[in-house]
Design brief:
The complex is a heterodimer of chains A (110) and B (118). With 110 residues, chain A is an all-beta fold. Chain A has no helices and eleven strands. In chain A, strands 2, 4, 5, 9, 10 and 11 form a six-stranded mixed β-sheet that branches. In chain A, strands 1-3-8-7-6 form a five-stranded antiparallel β-sheet, with no helix packed on it. Classes of the chains: A mainly beta (110), B mainly beta (118). Chains A and B meet through strand 5 and strand 10 of A and strand 5, strand 9 and strand 10 of B.
Chain lengths: 110, 118
């Protein structure tokens, strides 16, 4: 079993839709949870960072962490074609070595 | 904001030669940098942790004699792929930890380096 599981997609939605991206994990020691966006042939860009459980909102993006279920989510409201990218969840124990999910490819059509 | 710069962005080399990739933190000091590789349509896999002034820590299955890492200063880490072979062709990405107490970006990634070995 992988430490971090993420559906590779692709996930296709129309412009304006609410997007839900999710990851599950097995290591209960993870404390730091991140979501990265990666465009083709580019390095990952940090979108959201959450410590422990709870919600965090930043503009159209909301990150949720449920440590009891070992489940994290990223919601994108009012999705735009420019949001089309691969979204990677990542987590770590001590904010050092990150363990990544496989990434979910999101396609937002105009 | 803080930026991590990687160079070169693209490199093509002949099989059997060595190639060096640089990772620089531009406006902050990074005592620790990380090197990842990413194959097409796959996630990032940590190769090694680069520590300033000491030997790198390699992940299981990564050949330390093949992937030489040097972290000679607080702003520069280099990855040298020695005796490169076509199977080493991949996307190599470095990251560096910024100020853990600041909000927002705290782990910064470089733009990545595409290596093609022919």
């Amino acid at each position: 079993q992988k430490e971090v599981e993420q559906d590779p997609g692709p996930l296709s939605v129309p412009e304006g839709a609410i997007v839900s991206l999710n990851c599950t994990y097995s290591n209960s020691a993870f404390q730091y949870f991140m979501w990265y966006r990666q465009y083709s042939r580019k390095g990952p860009e940090l979108l959201m960072y959450t410590y422990s459980s709870g919600n965090k909102e930043d503009g159209r993006f909301t990150a949720q962490v449920d440590k009891s279920s070992k489940y994290i989510s990223l919601f994108i409201r009012d999705s735009q074609p420019s949001d089309s990218a691969t979204y990677l969840c990542a987590m770590s124990v001590g904010f050092q070595k990150l363990v990544f999910g496989t990434g979910t490819r999101l396609l937002v059509s105009p | 904001g803080a930026v991590v710069s990687q160079h070169p962005s693209w490199v093509i080399c002949k099989s059997g030669t060595s190639v060096k990739i640089e990772c620089r933190s531009l406006d902050f000091q990074a005592t620790t940098m990380f090197w990842y590789r990413q194959f097409p349509k796959q996630s990032l896999m940590l190769m090694a942790t680069s520590n300033e002034g000491s030997k790198a820590t390699y992940e299981q299955g990564v050949e330390k004699d093949k992937f030489l890492i040097n972290h000679a200063s607080l702003t520069l880490s280099t990855l040298t792929v020695t005796s490169a072979h076509p199977e080493d062709s991949s996307f190599y990405i470095c990251s560096a930890n910024g100020d853990i107490t600041s909000s927002g970006n705290t782990i910064y990634f470089g733009e990545g380096s595409w290596l093609t070995v022919v």
